[in-house]
Amino acid sequence: MTQTHTIRRPDDWHLHLRDGDMLRAVLPYTSRDFARAIIMPNLVPPVVTAADARAYRDRIIAAIPAGDEFTPLMTLYLTEDTDPADVAAAHAEGLITAVKLYPAGATTNSASGVSDFTKVAKVLEKMADIGLPLCTHGEVTDPSVDIFDREAVFIDRVLDPIRRDHPGLRVVMEHITTSDAVDYVMAHDSTLGATITTHHLVINRNHILVGGIKPHYYCLPVAKRETHRLALRKAATSGDARFFLGTDSAPHTDANKLLPCGCAGCFTAANTLSILAEVFEQDAALDKLEAFTSLNGPAFYGLSPNEATITLVRETPEYPPHIDTPDGPVTVFDPAMPLNWTT
Ligand code: NCD
Ligand code: ZN
Q: Which of the following is catalytic: 33, 52, 180, 248?
């Protein structure tokens, strides 16, 4: 049996680092293993302008533990007031790597997101011109649409029209959870990519709801039925260049998760690579792990893959059930299966 597995150092193409004490508490779990990450802009208030992104980038860089090499790839939060010129200038100076679209009200801290998509047409036009990718939170917020159908409906009502109106716009469907999203990506060209989280490769909706409600498995988009999880596994482990890792590691304190109206998000940064190695090995696809974690993402974003490598060792990983932060404990995602690889 193989005892070690070496891959190029991975990148995380969808990560929530938060700010302040929480940023300082969670960043080391990412910077230990990952070289770069696309940093989500849904702070309170959100990262809307180039000036916001510059200041946030500097706070992240100041929080990197000594000895770790980590590059935050910044994003701007798209609002109906976003100025195309500000976006273009931020891209030209190398400050931002993508713009993030949240439908207003779709998820944590998305109140400033977009309601009227015609109002962002000029920004999207500019982004298509300059080759700046759009990352989408792909869920409609129409109260009449069932929460388990919101991703599939988003594809028809929002994503497909945007892509038809802006040919050439590079789009990432973030944290996909359905076979509908996998099929949509497969049916299109390489201007379209998708990130898949660690947790959506492991849990289906039964994990959240059977035998008592499990708030630590609640995230958005919410995990779907098993057939969808299997479609995600197949896409992730296929090596197809359009699918790459975005952990969506989204720390919330236990106090904010364990409420009558608890926050959405799974904190997976502390054990993501161990879980992924397990998943890929179970599917006899350990040889495709590097494509998913370290090659496909940079290729989509037009960046070079990392030169440095990381070696996974066949040993039971050690990680705490929760990490302590000045704001309170944050529970680490429980993969509900034994893990056999560590970094
Ligand atoms: C994210 C968060 O907590 O910021 N939560 C989540 O459930 N994934 C927001 C998001 O990416 O939807
Ligand atoms: Zn997210």
A: 248
